[in-house]
Amino acid sequence: MFLYNNAFIGMATLILNSGRCAWGKCIFCGYGKIYKKRTNKDLVAILDDFFANLKDDSVVKIFGSGSFFDEKQIPKEIFEYFIEKTKENKISEIYLESRPEFITKEKILCLKETNAKINIAIGLESASDKILKTINKGFKVKDFENVANLIRSLGCKVRVYLLVNLPLKNWKAELEKSVNFALNYADSIVLLNLLPHENSEIFDLWIKGEWNFLSKEEFFDITSKWNGNPKIELDVETFKFVPRFRAPKILDGVGEEFLTHPYFEVWQDYLQRWYKKQTGKDIVLFLPCSAKKPYSESETHKKILNILSDLDKEKYKSVHQVMISNPGVIPREFENFEPLNAYNWDEKLENEFIKKRYIEVTKERIKKYLLSQKYNKIFCFLKYTESYEALKLACEELNLNFKNLLRKETYKKMKKEGITSIVCEDALNDLRERIKEI
Asked: Could you tell me the pTM of the whole model?
């Protein structure tokens, strides 16, 4: 996989998946476990395509799934081809990444033939051997020191990555020590917000509740002491952070296990502390779940969506559809993510205790969600049961107004007639009529 951007304004970035990292054991990294290998022909085609979009004097950054200096990932002939393309395009500055063990004097001298400024980035993560062992980094601080000295002795620059929020009790103090250490060796330092990659042990620690990511606000608050230092950059999101599970089983059942399951807990944590709704979606419409997943493929949601489509285009865009169910709140854009598309909760199996717990847990999830997302108006289309009650209590505690597009009179009539579907004709008529209020 590769992409490039900003190619026409002097800065170009290539994200190159060139196979598995030679080490691939760091507890925080999922990239290093990618096994797909590219042929030399593939790599040449990628580089040709990338450089074809560049202008002279561009700054080029290459990010990958391991080390650009590792010949198992970037064979010697491809490394040399990259150098030739750099010369042809008169690239002014290059940023490459590698583990220390692959960085050699020979390769650095080859890069210097480009006449570009050379920056070699190393993921040091921490300046403590004890911590490096804990996170299974696979090298020691001395290895970094030796290579950093080599790079600078040859007139190139050292770029250091340090991780903020490592799974340690005293990580803040250790981070400060690491920054102070790195300033002696690095020309630039990037403080990276540690986020849970899929396929990494840190992701599993997150699910188990043994570690948690920092919100953007927390990250910038903690790193504020270095804000403004010309040698230090703050990177709050190194990849598009969305919880991605490897192979969760279908969570089929009713009870505490399926209400506060760790998978659901981390999703709600993500939605409450990281996720921000799309700009312009200023009206929230809370909707029920459905037995069929994803929701939009169910008959219930097809009928609801059909009526919502009657809104004019701009108004429809402003309505944020959010489902309420035992996993918590589920914005429409996440309905096909696991395990939000792989669970089943049969209301007929609920007892009074679990109904009460459902309201308690769901109320808190809705509260935290509404506190993190600012909506101008709140609507719902829900039966007057547990999900509605949880929403009602959450809004009362937050002093927020909301309106149910399903009339109470209609719901009483449905109950009297033994109708359980919220998309019966009377209920849909309410939705058609009251949707105009949106």
From this structure: 0.91
